[in-house]
Design goal:
- This protein is of the alpha/beta class.
- The protein is built from 15 helices and 16 strands.
- It has helices at residues 16-26, 29-36, 43-54, 98-109, 123-127, 144-156, 175-178, 189-196, 199-206, 229-238, 245-254, 267-275, 297-308, 323-331, 341-372; strands spanning 2-3, 9-10, 55-57, 72-74, 77-79, 83-85, 112-115, 134-138, 161-165, 181-183, 186-187, 258-264, 280-283, 313-316, 336-339, 386-388.
- It has an eight-stranded parallel barrel, surrounded by six helices. The protein has a two-stranded antiparallel ribbon with strand order 1-2. Strands 3-16 form a two-stranded antiparallel sheet.
- Helix 1 (16-26) runs antiparallel to helix 15 (341-372) and helix 14 (323-331) packs across helix 15 (341-372).
- The protein is globular.
Length: 390
Amino acid sequence: MYPGGGGSVKRVALNIDDLRRQAKCALPRFAFSYVEGGADDEQTLKDNREIFGRWRFIPPVLNDSSQRDLSVTVCGQRLSAPLLIAPTGYNGMLRFGADAMLARTAKHAGIGYIQSTVSTASVEEIAAENLPQHWFQLYVLKDRAVTAGLLARAKAAGCTTLVVSVDAVHFGNREKDKRNYRRPMKLSLWSMLDVALHPGWVWRTLKPAGMPGFGNLKPYVPADKQRGAGGASYFSAQMDTRLSWETLRWIRSQWQGALLIKGILSPEDAQLAFASGADGIVLSNHGGRQLDGSVSALEVLPDIRTLCGSQATILIDSGFRRGTDVVKALALGADAVLLGRPMLYGVAAAGEAGAQRALEIILQEVDRTIAQLGCTSVSQLGPHLLRLQP
């Protein structure tokens, strides 16, 4: 049992979909739509899930897999399992202190935590949690001084790895999200009434410190625009829509640690990323929230692994809900998987206990699947264990 969103006790979730349903009950509609929604018709959102069903396991038998080691090394850092908590923005809308809850969950499990540029907590606040694997995700802003400032703060906070997102230069059309507003950043009457029907969310999220803001952007945003709509407007206006490979080379010159480029789907771009000085890439379609109709990350993984070679660092996200999904990606060549929505469902449903439960579910499923495939370590996984259905 674990404490529920409003202090009640809920049944332990058996899978991520259970946590999703609990999160839907705990959040007002506008907040759940923000977490759940994709772009346009949400075809890519659906495809991200359906692609996993096309790959079927071919489990060998009579292999002793009674003892298993899930640990991996990514960017020179040992992780207890091939997982990282993905960078997600404005988590303070789900629950006060959500970013720190997710960071502590990663720390206790021995996996990586990637903090977003637009997290509610600042990089300094998360650094106070003393994470051994604290990574920072960068959105490149027009003002190079601000971007350089973010990089300097991430370095000073002890972040070991930089993850540069390149697939959100132009924001996707998230219609499910927009339906909750009468105009940009102004909730509709029905949405405000729905908020009133969720007093527990108001108590957990707004009562402690009011409307959440963007902790990392606080030094750069005018005082009267640091929370809610003001911070969002600043961020939207500051996104660098002229992002190019030259920009990536400039970032490389500013950051001496490991650097990954997130949002790669094209094999050619994967090669260019490494040629531009990246130490690794993250295959991602931003969870179906950007260009609807784009390929899923899993769909291009085998080709990109073949093209870039066995030594290239390749991570992946978008659509992962089960440990079997994670194992399929590892077998097809991913070094690790980033978990986004599953962790948000958990923290929205039951705070830190919910986040821990989400990660526990995935870890148990990964371990069980590897055992059923007759493997004792992640390194034994490979495409020979899978078959693609037509």
